[in-house]
């Protein structure tokens, strides 16, 4: 891989997508480390960080998360998401991170996430991420792409 990829990779981890240490305060090392962060509630700054990376509006992000736009706006004013909203944001960041790994390029990953996909009954992957089953289907599709099934 090029030096640029090696440098940009950490910024595209789940932690990086959600604003890094500046927003999260502590570094998550394992999946279980995320449990306490989610339970405490993520900073609303993580919403802005992920929206910026995804190149979507707050309204589009609200739809992808399955959180009413007014609720998301209120949480941004309050400064913290509740645990359910935090879990949805982490789930979205995990899928974006996996898509970036699969396609080895953020722009390609974002195009894939926003394009209708026959393997997902014509839905855009991003439109399915508001539910666990939808996110699981997207992750399974990414796994098949990694193994050349839909290449």
Give the helix proportion (percent range). 55-70%
The secondary structure category is mainly alpha
DSSP, total strands:
0
- Strand percentage lies at under 5%
> How many individual helices?
10
Overall shape: it is globular
Between the first and last Cα atoms, what is the distance in angstroms?
21 Å
Q: Which residue ranges are poorly predicted, with pLDDT under 50 across at least 5 consecutive positions?
A: 1-11
Question: How do the SSEs run, as a string of H and E?
Answer: HHHHHHHHHH
Mean pLDDT: 88
Oligomer classification = single chain
Main sheet makeup: none
Rg of Cα set: 15 Å
Number of domains: 1
Explain how this protein is built.
The protein has 151 residues and is mainly α. It has one domain. Helices cover 64% and strands 0% of the residues. The chain has 10 helices and no strands. Helix 4 crosses helix 8, helix 8 packs across helix 9 and helix 8 runs parallel beside helix 10. The protein is globular.
Topology:
Elements: H1 3-8, H2 14-17, H3 20-24, H4 33-40, H5 45-54, H6 58-65, H7 69-78, H8 83-103, H9 106-114, H10 132-146
């Amino acid at each position: 891989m090029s030096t640029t990829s090696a440098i940009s990779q950490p910024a595209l981890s789940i932690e990086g997508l959600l604003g890094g240490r500046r927003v999260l305060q502590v570094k998550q090392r394992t999946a279980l480390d995320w449990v306490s962060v989610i339970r405490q509630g993520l900073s609303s700054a993580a919403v802005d960080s992920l929206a910026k990376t995804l190149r979507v509006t707050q309204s589009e992000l609200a739809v992808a998360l399955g959180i009413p736009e007014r609720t998301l706006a209120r949480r941004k004013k309050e400064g913290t998401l509740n645990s359910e909203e935090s879990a949805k944001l982490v789930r979205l960041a995990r899928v974006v991170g996996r898509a970036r790994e699969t396609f080895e390029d953020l722009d390609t990953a974002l195009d894939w996430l926003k394009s209708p996909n026959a393997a997902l009954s014509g839905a855009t992957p991003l439109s399915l991420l508001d539910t666990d089953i939808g996110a699981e289907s997207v992750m399974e599709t990414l796994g098949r792409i990694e193994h050349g099934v839909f290449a």
